[in-house]
Amino acid sequence: MSSRVRKDKNPHRKTWAVLFVIVSLFCIIFFAAKGRFQAPANSKAVSLVLSPFQQTAAWIGGQLDYVTSTIWDIATAHEQNKLLRNEVEQLRIQNLEASEAMAENERLRTMLGYRQMTTQFDLVAARVIGRESATWSRMIVINRGQKDGVDVDMVVVTADGLVGHIVEAGWNTSKVQLILDPRSSVGTIVQRAESRVAGIVQGDMNNPTMPQMVNIAKNADVVEGDVIVTSGFGGIYPKGIVVGRVSSIENDAGGLLKIGLLETAVDFQKLEDVMVITASREAPPEPIKPPVQTPGTETDPAAQAAEAKAAAAGENQR
């Protein structure tokens, strides 16, 4: 009983299904036979009947094409974006490597120029590979040691000026005490010819970046802006290496001496490459030129030779 009621609820379902099948078959036959025969009388009627189906099919086909092309474009754009990101990352790495290589090349060129100018020094190039973090200690570690001819008390410099000296020399690494260390002591002198005041440069625990030039007499000729170089006193540091420039002058606690605060020639925050002086020779003195003398004087060797030659010729004539 229930199944019969259920069938009675949809009496037109079979009718609509049959009509749909008939229309579908008609469409298939029409499209298959289109162009093989002419039906001028019924062409308008057929077109009118099939027009909604054609429009629907065309719309569905267009939408499918649009969706397909959109999905393809999205997939292609995603892949291209991925490739472009990888390329940008590679170019960024190459740019960083090129910049680092240029900076290193510039440093090495500067070091080579310094080596060519300071012929009185035998130099070994080294790279900073470590720093001590203690606040009271100013130490660096370099990648050169005894196998490279580096030993204790050898001086470390850059093209800008004095860095410090070796305090520990291992087989392939060494530890350098900077002039910023409070335990460091460097004999120095004012480079200005009118002054030539001597003093000692040592690190300041209260001002880690600016060492002090101490033991300066209160009336000594030292002013702001004076260039301070090594004096050669003490037997470690050769003479004439730039230490820094006087930034300011202060009186010491007793009031009898002055203290000069120095702005170092070397930028220790950017210290990467250094040179170790493995041997030092005084620059050869310029040849002494004899003074210009009046011909015929006893101190003129040429005049003496000419006079002796003339005397010998006169005796032969006699």
From TrEMBL:
Coiled-coil regions, chain positions = 74-108
Fetch the Pfam families from UniProt. MreC
**Could you state one GO biological process linked to this protein?**
regulation of cell shape
Give the start-end ranges of region Disordered.
Answer: 280-318
One GO cellular component assignment for this chain's record is:
plasma membrane
Compositional bias segments (type: Low complexity): 302-318
**Residue stretches making up the Rod shape-determining protein MreC beta-barrel core domain:** 128-277
Which residue ranges does UniProt annotate as crossing the membrane? 16-33
Query: Which UniProt keywords are given for this protein, alphabetically ordered?
Result: Cell shape, Coiled coil, Membrane, Transmembrane, Transmembrane helix
The answer to whether UniProt assigns keyword Transmembrane to this entry is yes
Tell me, in a sentence or two, what this protein's role is.
Involved in formation and maintenance of cell shape.
The cross-references to PANTHER family, in alphabetical order and at most eight, read:
CELL SHAPE-DETERMINING PROTEIN MREC
Family the entry assigns:
Belongs to the MreC family.
Designated name of the protein:
Cell shape-determining protein MreC
| Record organism | Selenomonas ruminis
What gene does this protein come from?
mreC
